[in-house]
Amino acid sequence: MEVGCYASVPEALTYRRKLHASCACGPSYTIKPGDSLDAIAKSCGSTVDDLAATNNIPNIDIITVGTVLTIPGCGSGGQTASTSSSCTCGPSYTIKPGDSLDAIAKSCGSTVADLAATNNISNIDLITAGTVLTIPGCG
């Protein structure tokens, strides 16, 4: 998909967290004419889900030119959940229908990688409602 092109993508097909050693865009990015959240995520080494959650964007298809986005995982705001002192979900979380590991990680102050490793999840896109997850660093 090129910058400026928009598509409606089902949640199950959205990009998942990618592990990057560097922050291609730095800690922030200013939206320019023709940008899409998808293109920004790709060029900044993030995901659409992470950008939307970090910047409180309710509709990923509607972004405003001139808005300064915080790039998750870059700069001073990039602290990972395992070093955070807040455990917003407590030591465990029960997966509900419609949950994604990405959304659970965000709401519980963790990362997808940490949740997957702690709970022996090999496929982050395949989780089951009713499963009780251990939240890393909150026990």
UniProtKB/TrEMBL annotation:
InterPro entries to which the protein is assigned, alphabetical: LysM, LysM_dom_sf
All residue ranges annotated as the LysM domain in the record: 27-71, 91-135
Domain of life the protein comes from: Eukaryota
SMART domains cross-referenced by the UniProt entry: LysM
Pfam family, one: LysM
CDD domains cross-referenced by the UniProt entry: LysM (cd00118)
Protein name stated in the entry: LysM domain-containing protein
Origin species: Chlorella variabilis
